[in-house]
Amino acid sequence: MEYIKIGKIINTHGIKGELKISSCSDFDAERYQKGNTVYIASRGQYLPFQVQSFRTHQGYSLVSFQNAQNINDVEQYKECMIYMDAADRQPLRNGEYYRDQLLDLKAVDEEGHEIGIIKAVEETCPGQRHLRLQREGKSDALIPYIPFFIKKVDMEQKCIVIHVEEGLL
Q1: Phi, psi of 140 (to 5 degrees)
Q2: Which of 109, 13, 149 is nearest to 70 (CA)?
Q3: pLDDT tens-digit map of 16-45
Q4: Shortest CA distance to 139 belongs to which of 159, 116, 165?
Q5: Are 51 and 40 in contact, with CB atoms under 8 Å apart?
Q6: Of 1, 12, 104, 108, which residue has the fewest beta carbons closer than 10 angstroms?
Q7: If we measure between CA atoms, which residue out of 121, 87, 81 comes closest to residue 105?
């Protein structure tokens, strides 16, 4: 089975077994539907949990699991990563990509010169995504993930074409 990281458990919430999750998914409501199975990475294992409830609170996902309805059942999972089965991922429309699909793509300018490697997709403030571009011998750059700067994503060539404006890099 292939696992895809969908978040990090940062704390418990209340005493009824809810976990506060910092998400790295754009589809939390789908991922955490009641009855869905997710996996918590703990002590070198992927432990399956069936979702009991989901809600959002102050920008975080709050999730509880069946058979873990009290703080004592879930406290041990603080700081653990949470995953989904890759086979459960739904296809996206043409031109849309999951965050992990963009990682490690080679970034080139419009003339084809390599400028770095995409190392992260970051939410800098609500609704604004940036690609963290790792550049050899230079500091990382944040590229706004908008059509003005992102000209082409070529998954076959594992490449992303970026329009470079003065001051961007």
Answers
A1: -65, 155
A2: 13
A3: 999 999 988 778 888 999 999 999 999 999
A4: 116
A5: no
A6: 1
A7: 121
| pLDDT for position 125 | 66
Is the sign of the CA dihedral 127, 167, 159, 138 positive or negative?
negative
Nearest to 38 by CA among 92, 1, 70: 1
The pTM assigned to this predicted structure is 0.70
Q: Give the pair of three-digit tokens for residue 23.
A: 């998400």
Q: How far apart are the C-alpha atoms of 106 and 157, rounded to whole Å?
A: 9
Dihedral through CA 20, CA 21, CA 26, CA 30, nearest 10? -70
Q: How far is the C-alpha of 97 from the C-alpha of 102, rounded, in Å?
A: 7
* Residue 128's pLDDT band (cuts 50, 70, 90): confident
- How many residues make up the chain in this entry? 169
Q: Which domains does the chain have, with CATH numbers?
A: 3-88 (2.40.30.60), 99-162 (2.30.30.240)
